[in-house]
Please model this.
Amino acid sequence: MLIALDIGNSSIKLGFFIKKDLFVRAIATHPLLSTSRYSALIQHFLREKNIDKTPEGIIISSVVPGHTEALRKTLKRLFSVEPLIVDHTTKTGIRLDIPKPEELGPDRIANAVAAEELYKCPVAVIDCGTATTISVIGQDANYIGGAILPGIRLMNESLAKGTARLSEIQISPSCAALGIDTSACIRSGLLYGTAGAVERILSEVERETGLRLKIAMTGGHSGRISKCMTRKHKVIPHLTLEGLRIIYRRNTDA
Model:
């Protein structure tokens, strides 16, 4: 068994890889819990899924520094295994061909690794989470850059906080481009606006680089935004965890 932990701004995803199976438990990132509380939640999930194996390894990706140590201690105490913490210096199999690789989030590194492994050609990863991020991998397994824009939840909250008459809306699975009331107009702007921005950025990246990109989508809002996309793409819900699995193997295989 391998445990992969993706600590994001909104949720913490615990992935338990057992042979070809992946079991995932999501925990809200905030508030930060005690190590005993995290231990109880993990143990409850293991009992629920009848998982009684001892992990051969643990790997962590975190974009929330204040949570990293708490979860590292929790997992080490539970399983007596020192987790591998992913950063820009970790052996991944891809080259970070950017001026400041230390600024790149480990979740984006994991996404890039998984997408490159899957496609073996130029690919862009769209991660639709708290932020919507675009990560681009070139022809030679090199990470060449990307883009970041606010996620749909942040935009939704911002409209409600920054205006007098607009309220935060419920993001439903379906969406019409033509809104017929205020909620529908906001919903269209959030979903079609994000999809349109992503596709425009990808087109400009292709124009600037001469690449033709495959597209992989992941993240909590990917299913909603996917329905508004016109370009061919594939939604891969647990791409980050799969990337962590690959990175772990590349750091332990001889």
Summary: The CA atoms of residues 88 and 102 lie 6 Å apart.
